[in-house]
Sequence to fold (880 residues):
Amino acid sequence: MAQYIEPRVLKGFRDFLPPAEIERRLLIEKIEQSFRLFGFVPIDTPALEYAEILLGKGGGETEKQIYRFKDHGERDVALRFDLTVPFARFMAEHRHELPLPFKRYHIAKVWRGENTQRGRYREFTQCDFDIVGTDKSAADFEILLMMKQTLSAIGVQNITIRLNHRGLFNRFLHRFGWLPHSVEILRTVDKLAKIGEAETRDLLANLVGQEGAATILSYIHTEGSYEETLRKLTDMAGGKDSDTERLETLLQFMKDLGIESSFVLDPSITRGLDYYTGVVFETFLNDLPDIGSVCSGGRYDNLVALYSREQLPGVGASIGLDRLLAALEALGKETAPRSFVVVAIACVDERQGGRYQALAQQFRAAGLACEVFPEPKKLSQQFALAEKKGARFMVIPQEGESSYTLRDLSSRENKEHLSVDEMLKLIRQTGSPVMPQNKI
Amino acid sequence: MAQYIEPRVLKGFRDFLPPAEIERRLLIEKIEQSFRLFGFVPIDTPALEYAEILLGKGGGETEKQIYRFKDHGERDVALRFDLTVPFARFMAEHRHELPLPFKRYHIAKVWRGENTQRGRYREFTQCDFDIVGTDKSAADFEILLMMKQTLSAIGVQNITIRLNHRGLFNRFLHRFGWLPHSVEILRTVDKLAKIGEAETRDLLANLVGQEGAATILSYIHTEGSYEETLRKLTDMAGGKDSDTERLETLLQFMKDLGIESSFVLDPSITRGLDYYTGVVFETFLNDLPDIGSVCSGGRYDNLVALYSREQLPGVGASIGLDRLLAALEALGKETAPRSFVVVAIACVDERQGGRYQALAQQFRAAGLACEVFPEPKKLSQQFALAEKKGARFMVIPQEGESSYTLRDLSSRENKEHLSVDEMLKLIRQTGSPVMPQNKI
Fold:
């Protein structure tokens, strides 16, 4: 046995068998279609880049998790660990070839050698979308609307998008003289949902004293309504500024579309540390709050800061596809078929293989996925295999006849002596899935 | 300037800007749809695997080209350099979970640190499809038909698929006592198209003498027709056997579908060395023969030999997506749009951003991709940007009116005081692209 290599995959990596991969691909297709309807265009960047580019000035967690090595030319290279850093590099390099504002999406795998946990993998798919080259409210709003719309397109209507404004938070911290501690404060507040109010209070008290902790807890508390919360935040930050106006404008836009009930102004949302400067947001499924945010993002002043002296403001978000898939499964919303096959053609006589394919071509031309069995096994075995393959119908060609028997594998009924047109008609009446025609 | 990192990608790697990426994605979508119509299902495997698994017993070229390194746990890992080895590992691991014959496709990136040349990259996309678990002619034929059909679906009709049978070739070599040299002979013959007949003759003469070289050149010469070539090969191999029957059956199947003119029996096709045991084939574009084969493959006795004692015969092929894209470009067949956008909505008043999005949602609901401009620039600038973004129409909302001006950016004509329904009707009349609905 020693000559065989044991087939296995690395810890934190996964094979996708057809049922899971079909679900993933159909989900991605629906997400992409939603993005395209908003005028977003796809880009792609290499999986492997210079480590210097990917790590930037960074270090810390990222440095520990990144897959980094020397290539054949002794270059210091690494696998991308997100799609944001490559996008920043991409924009710095190509911005003069692209019409601004530029709206891109990028759905691709990223790799992080971090500790594996339930639902956390070392290879996973991100799904990013951004509008860069404008700092207008309309761009913030488009991202928020597209998040809502895209989740709706995949069957998830009951969501809450929680948003906050990093600039407003910073004004509040500045007013109380806590800006020097802002990194620790934002990090602590970000953990509120995880660690609870008591522990948050203790951690904050270490930084700004008991009274300060109480003030911050009062700031990050969500009031009854978006307007009430905004009024409180503005007061505590020292009065109205452009950040308040931004949040007011966004609320007005939400009202214009009648979608304001899906949004909560939540000052405890801070989203990481250095990157974001304006609105930040996270998306929660109301029927499954424990799974955490399935789509998060925010506005940043300057995407390309690391790679260019020019400024490029933007706003964007990212869907964690693996978490979303887990959520859909938990919600019982996965609806993907096991295969695309509608019709299977039984093999009665091996020498008729060409004619079976000619028959199959007629189903395929009508948009019906069709499987041709290559081996003349017993019909009962072929029925069983067709069911396993997800087919609804089986065509049984009769020797020396130009008509066919059509078996409905769900009702187990046979209809005999049918022409191809008659079979097509019967199959269409069942509403079996027809392949979309690529019109674009 | 020293604080900026120069944005650049590694040699042999590429960014895909939207026009190229849209073309790539739409091509992949059409290829996938064709595969699905034949009942093939997608799988996915990790980009990173144990080096031992990927390299198998191999070595040589592969070993030199593979991106291999130690991960955080000091595991010896590597990036996949093709999709065949991971598929073999996948089947050895999961075959009892899958109905046989199993028909899978896998479209994904692979990495090879080889020397870069024009059109050859270190990161490229492969597109594999296989039927495993059956040794029947019908499976060989389905792969051949699907190759032809898939190229036809992307607009490439004028192709020639050249096929051969490795078993027949081996019988011929055995008969003349040249089987010990078969590896070198097959390798030499494989280069015939590249190095020419004279050099091939010299190389073969070194192995089997002048007379032997003449015999092999006579063997690998394609005669007038499939039948004539097959008769000669069978004679030279010492008479009829199952390999001749296989090639006869395939020809009969081709005739049953009336597609035999696309196939040539070409005994100079050998396709690599160890892997294939039955029919092998390469696909050439008649209008662009110099680009080489865009889709190649063959039949193998045992996919999982490295990872399991069980047998698993199969047949499959691979489309080189990057070469195919280069070919489509050379043939002037790229037809992808620069973007998906049909309609752009002008920004006249920034505060109306919500209403513009509400309007856009009506176009999107009709399947028309719609862009909303966030900045109230001069209309002439917005027209120019809309054209750059690939929009055909621009909607200009008038202040305080519920009707709109629709500008056809191709004719530069305005139509005024239109309702949304009237705009939709006018846009549809132009045959502008409508997003397909995901029915599956």
Observations:
- Chain B touches chain A through 124 residues (CB under 8 Å).
- The first helix of chain B runs from residue 18 to 37.
- The first strand of chain B starts at residue 41 and ends at 42.
